[in-house]
Amino acid sequence: MTAKKEWLAIADEALTKAYVPYSHFPVGACLVTEAGQTYQGVNIENASYGLTNCAERTAIFKAVSEGERDFQHLVIAGNTPEPISPCGACRQVMAEFCAPDMPVTLVGEHGVTKETTVSELLPYAFTEKDL
Ligand code: THU
């Protein structure tokens, strides 16, 4: 399923809320539960740079901490010329909480999008089945 306009708008609006005083590289996310509830996420940086939390992990952690476990879609937006590419840590967290075939919509500036999935972003993922 392609992303609803509303989900794209939520991820896009999040860009204005990103806390990015160091990189000036805002990222926004919208995670959608199976029931249709949306969780917005932004990247949150820190003077101790390594403590930065990416937008998509913020959205996932917000939802999981509210008891949500079932997700149907993730939208990630950046002001990048090409659709934004999520970092490796976020791909691993997606693989933990989202089904391998869950659609992920990546958005760049001017709304240019790429449709992908969790398993396309992280093939041969390490998950609970490997423990
Ligand atoms: N960032 C995200 O929020 N998500 C990604 O998947 C890529 C990177 C953030 C982290 C940092 O605040 C800024 O982008 C530059 O790396």
From TrEMBL:
PANTHER family referenced in this protein's UniProt entry, alphabetically: CYTIDINE DEAMINASE
Entry binding sites for substrate: 43-49
CDD domains: cytidine_deaminase
Binding-site residues for Zn(2+), renumbered to this chain: 54, 87, 90
Zinc found in the keyword field: yes
Domain CMP/dCMP-type deaminase per the UniProt entry, residue ranges: 2-129
Enzyme Commission code(s) on record: 3.5.4.5
Pfam family membership, one: dCMP_cyt_deam_1
InterPro entries: APOBEC/CMP_deaminase_Zn-bd, CMP_dCMP_dom, Cyt/Deoxycyt_deaminase, Cyt_deam_tetra, Cytidine_deaminase-like
SUPFAM superfamilies the UniProt entry points to: Cytidine deaminase-like
Its biological purpose: This enzyme scavenges exogenous and endogenous cytidine and 2'-deoxycytidine for UMP synthesis.
Annotated protein name in UniProt: Cytidine deaminase
Catalytic residues of the enzyme: 56
Cofactor: Zn(2+)
Alphabetized Gene3D superfamilies for the sequence: Cytidine Deaminase, domain 2
EC main group: hydrolase
Example of a GO biological process term: pyrimidine-containing compound metabolic process
Top-level division of the source organism's lineage: Bacteria
Family to which the UniProt record says this protein belongs: Belongs to the cytidine and deoxycytidylate deaminase family.
Keywords: Hydrolase, Metal-binding, Zinc
A Gene Ontology cellular-component term: cytosol
Keyword Zinc: yes
Catalytic reaction equation(s): 2'-deoxycytidine + H2O + H(+) = 2'-deoxyuridine + NH4(+); cytidine + H2O + H(+) = uridine + NH4(+)
GO molecular function: cytidine deaminase activity; identical protein binding; zinc ion binding
